[in-house]
Amino acid sequence: MHTMWKGNISFGLVSIPIKLHAATENKDVKLRNLHKECKTPIQYEKTCPGCGKEVTNEDIVKAYEYAKNKFVVLDEEDLEELKKENEDKSVEIIDFVMLEEIDPIFFDRSYFMSPNDGGSKAYSLLRKALEDSGKIGLAKIIIRSKEHLAVIRVYQNTLVMETIHYPDEVRSVADVPSIPSEDNITDKELDTAKTLIEQLTTTFNPDKFQDEYRTALMELIEEKIASENTVTAEAKPDEPKSNVTDLMSALQASIDKTKKKKAPTKGKKKTTSATATKVRKNA
Length: 283
Hints:
The chain has helices at about 75-85, 120-135, 185-200, 210-225, 240-260, 275-280, and strands at about 5-10, 15-20, 60-65, 70-75, 90-95, 105-115, 135-145, 145-155, 160-165. By secondary structure, it is an alpha+beta fold. The chain has a domain at about 5-170: Ku70, Chain: A, Domain 2, CATH 2.40.290. It has a 7-stranded mixed β-barrel. Strands 3-4 form a two-stranded antiparallel sheet. A hairpin with a 2-residue loop joins strand 1 (about 5-10) and strand 2. It has 6 helices and 9 strands. The chain is extended, with a radius of gyration of 32 Å.
């Protein structure tokens, strides 16, 4: 399992060298966009809407839009300096709380935690202490230059770190439109609903659920492959013009460089346009 972060986690005077591993993975079926005519994968180029030029990563800078079309440009040096200041690879558990106190809306991503070299005993100590107390640890961690609030808990004999949203990242329910302010229901309707809930109440078993759309999509894809109902992208055509242009540019640059080294002497005929044309053709 790929290690995505290494560091230390501490509570009190106990320090545990740990490694983080992504606990979940995206199983979405990725589909490519092809040109309908020749079945070639479509490429997406970055272009500037202002001047129409194609841009590379080297041509792009980061900025914050503080007002409409007004930006503060942030240099890479500025961002790197901030990154270094906050690149502490140690995580301190700030508080211990009950899991039930945190609403699920706050949870973001999950990571498995494994002990790094020399950390097995301290890892086991924290795991056992959390199990016996029934509590979880609340901590802060910096992952990929972003500070996260996180909880540490036990999951199937393994310590798990789950990043959670900060309070200001969770939108207010007051902004949700069309929420009824009062329950305009009858007792009979409520009793019927409660009876239905009771009949459907069971123990949560995640193994009985699956992504039915993804399963059906993969079955369809496999059927098409088996029946050879497939297409092959056309090979990219040769581009001799661009090669010739590159060659001529190199030749012309070489000629210009030679001219600078050798000053023209009197009596020498100037190169005519016809001669230059002949050189280009021979090249």
